[in-house]
Specification:
By secondary structure, this protein is an alpha/beta fold. The chain folds into three domains: 51 residues, no CATH class; 27 residues, no CATH class; 151 residues, Hypothetical Protein Ta1238, Chain: A (Up-down Bundle). The strands form three sheets. Strands 7-6-9-8 form a four-stranded mixed beta sheet, with no helix packed on it. A three-stranded mixed beta sheet has the order 2-3-5, with no helix packed on it. Helix 3 runs antiparallel to helix 7, helix 5 crosses helix 8 and helix 7 packs antiparallel against helix 8. The longest helix has 27 residues. The radius of gyration is 20 Å and the shape is elongated. The termini are far apart.
């Protein structure tokens, strides 16, 4: 019997007749978060009996009839070791999702409903990045929380001009929401480094600049959200 978490469910998604599917044996189980992700991403859950006999391959071209415990799916039936940079990147995306959820809960607890709504949009965006990685789809251009990539860069670099609030260093006296946002920002930076490690060629050039740009945009957006929270706290006399 196997229990699939959200991360392992993502790793075991297959393609059948051009559609993404997940094969579930009668003896196996999905965690609530795994089932929710499959439904949210429109991945059909099918009985394992419908799966065709599998033959796995490795990046070196080796053929396997069984999946070793130390390996996992890169794409389709291609297996890689679990410490492969692409798998490490997916793990960081999973951690980023978890931090966004906790940050959103903190924002709601402190009455920051606007920030919580922005975090929900950001969470959806990160989950789309997971799809773009697994299915090797390009990241679509578009505004994030109402701001284009150029606007995010400009505003995050010039907060005084756009928000009447200069750059600042967070302190322990700041609100839990602001500090949670700062933590998410640092996880985004770590995820960006993992993305570069996963998607670079022999000369160090990025092979998925769209993923790197998307994460850079997210970092800028989190800084803007922090700026906005800080300005509000100072206006209320609660900020340093």
């Amino acid at each position: 019997m196997a229990v699939y978490t959200e991360e392992t469910a993502k790793a075991n998604v297959r393609v059948r007749d051009g559609k993404r599917v997940f094969y579930l044996d009668d003896r196996d189980h999905l965690t609530p978060s795994a089932r929710a992700w499959l439904q949210r991403d429109h991945v059909e859950i099918l009985p394992a009996a419908l799966a065709k006999p599998q033959c796995f391959t490795t990046l070196s071209g080796a053929m396997l009839t069984e999946k070793p415990e130390h390996m996992t799916h890169l794409r389709g039936n291609v297996l890689v070791p679990k410490d492969h940079p692409r798998i490490a990147f997916r793990g960081m995306l999973d951690s980023l999702e978890a931090e966004l959820l906790l940050c959103g809960r903190t924002a709601l607890d402190e009455g920051q409903t606007g920030t919580a709504e922005n975090l929900r949009e950001i969470l959806d965006f990160v989950r789309r990045l997971v799809r773009c990685d697994v299915l090797e789809e390009p990241v679509k251009d578009g505004a994030l929380c109402g701001l284009t990539a150029a606007e995010l860069r400009e505003r995050s670099h010039n907060p005084q001009k756009y928000y009447d609030q200069p750059h600042f260093m967070p302190t322990a006296s700041d609100s839990r929401t602001l500090l949670a946002l700062n933590r998410v920002r640092t996880v985004i930076r770590q995820t960006e480094l993992a993305a570069y490690a996963a998607f670079k060629d022999m000369d160090g050039n990025a092979t998925r600049p769209d993923l790197l740009q998307a994460l850079n945009r997210l970092s800028s957006l989190l800084w803007i959200l922090m700026i906005q929270i800080k300005k509000g706290e100072i206006a209320r006399g609660n900020g340093a």
